[in-house]
Amino acid sequence: MPGTWAIIVAAGRGSRLGTEIPKQYLRLGKHSILTHTLKKFLEHPLIDKILVVIHPDDNQLFQDSCPDYLDKVLLEQGGKTRQISVRNGLKALAVHTPDCVLIHDAARPFVSADVISILASTAQGGKACIAATPVVDSLKSASETEDSIKVKKSIKRDGLWHAQTPQAFPFTIIQKAHQSVSDQENHTDDAAIAETCGIDITLVPSDRNNIKITTTEDLRLAEVMIASSITKRSIMESRTGLGYDVHCFEAGDHVTLCGVDIPHTRKLKGHSDADVGLHALTDALLGALCEGDIGTHFPPSDPQWKDAMSDQFLAFAKNRVTKRSGKIIHVDVTLICEKPKIGPHREAMVARMAEILDISPSRVSIKATTSEKLGFTGREEGIAAQAVATIQIPAED
């Protein structure tokens, strides 16, 4: 499938850390380092698919340390160098014809969502780019002997940057670049390979938290950082969103309300299936997230949504909550109409909405009322719906 893919390079042995297993499979808090890294990309809205390049001997290690990702990522075998591993990954992706790709080290679990966003957007715009931080420490060139290390000269740090990953590229550009270099050159990152082909590289400012875990000291720092992030994530804030929708009747034999087809003398008119209940609730969830409304993400002017089932709109909103590490606490939908009668179908509606949202039916409320023969609903010209959604997401500064 076209789109934006991430290649996570996880084939290294991590010899400098001196552990029995490769560093990417070490525990960091409750999960492996690789799991933390995969989570950052899997939950990012601009990343469509993930391919993980692992060592040929690490299949069982991957299964044991990343059990939640076995059916969510593709696997490819790496080679004896990082360069070969990335090339293998690019070759495996070619059949999927991605538009662009982000290449990231498995041992960098702290990359921020904002950096991923900027890199992905830049690559989608046709430019190669890498995460980087400016050099802030004084630099010295040195000579080493058995007894000492001596300074030879100072080096100006102006214009110098520390290269990090992710490194993002339009797919065909980096694929051709990798194909043009030999294994003997052994470049240490993909930007260096792109440079040999004359490709301009844009720097995207990252932060120093995006460390690569290489030494025991790095691992200790990472443990402190993950403990701090867990504490921060445990502080949640509640959000409430409101939604409203209305559709008029037209000729037909049923209406779809809250995901359930109900026999009726007419149907609701709309570009999709015109499910006012799910439309209102979709807007309520998006409103709680401050992420626009249903028309922002599924414009009626787009022909692909003609006659679409509205459960996919609600599932999209639910997934946006999940991607923000949030939780749906309660939803409440009120249907306003004279007919059809809602009571006989309420239980099925509650069950269907709970299924779409992946929450307990005890967190779903559906009510119905009339407008006492007043207004367009009273004249039986259409149906209106109001919705309230309560969610929890990690507290923002």
From TrEMBL:
Q: Which reaction does it catalyse?
A: 2-C-methyl-D-erythritol 4-phosphate + CTP + H(+) = 4-CDP-2-C-methyl-D-erythritol + diphosphate; 4-CDP-2-C-methyl-D-erythritol 2-phosphate = 2-C-methyl-D-erythritol 2,4-cyclic diphosphate + CMP
Is the Phosphoprotein keyword given for this protein?
Answer: no
Q: Which residues bind a divalent metal cation?
A: D245, H247, H279
Q: What is its EC number?
A: 2.7.7.60, 4.6.1.12
The annotated site for Transition state stabilizer falls at: R16, K23, H271, T370
Q: Which residues form the 2-C-methyl-D-erythritol 2,4-cyclodiphosphate synthase domain?
A: 239-391
Show the segment(s) annotated as 2-C-methyl-D-erythritol 4-phosphate cytidylyltransferase. 1-238
- Which cofactor does this sequence's record say it needs? a divalent metal cation
Can you tell me which residues bind 4-CDP-2-C-methyl-D-erythritol 2-phosphate? Answer: D245, V246, H247, H271, S272, D293, I294, G295, T369, T370, S371, E372, F376, R379
Its pathway is:
Isoprenoid biosynthesis; isopentenyl diphosphate biosynthesis via DXP pathway; isopentenyl diphosphate from 1-deoxy-D-xylulose 5-phosphate: step 2/6; Isoprenoid biosynthesis; isopentenyl diphosphate biosynthesis via DXP pathway; isopentenyl diphosphate from 1-deoxy-D-xylulose 5-phosphate: step 4/6
2-C-methyl-D-erythritol 2,4-cyclodiphosphate synthase as annotated region, ranges: 239-397
Q: Name one GO molecular function term.
A: 2-C-methyl-D-erythritol 4-phosphate cytidylyltransferase activity
Is Nucleotidyltransferase a UniProt keyword of this protein?
Answer: yes
Instruction: Name the keywords, alphabetized.
Output: Isoprene biosynthesis, Lyase, Metal-binding, Multifunctional enzyme, Nucleotidyltransferase, Transferase
Q: Where is this site: Positions MEP for the nucleophilic attack?
A: R157, K212
Q: Which family does it belong to?
A: In the N-terminal section; belongs to the IspD/TarI cytidylyltransferase family. IspD subfamily. In the C-terminal section; belongs to the IspF family.
NCBIfam families the UniProt entry points to: ispD, ispF, PRK09382.1
Role description: Bifunctional enzyme that catalyzes the formation of 4-diphosphocytidyl-2-C-methyl-D-erythritol from CTP and 2-C-methyl-D-erythritol 4-phosphate (MEP) (IspD), and catalyzes the conversion of 4-diphosphocytidyl-2-C-methyl-D-erythritol 2-phosphate (CDP-ME2P) to 2-C-methyl-D-erythritol 2,4-cyclodiphosphate (ME-CPP) with a corresponding release of cytidine 5-monophosphate (CMP) (IspF).
Q: Give the protein name, as stated in the record.
A: Bifunctional enzyme IspD/IspF
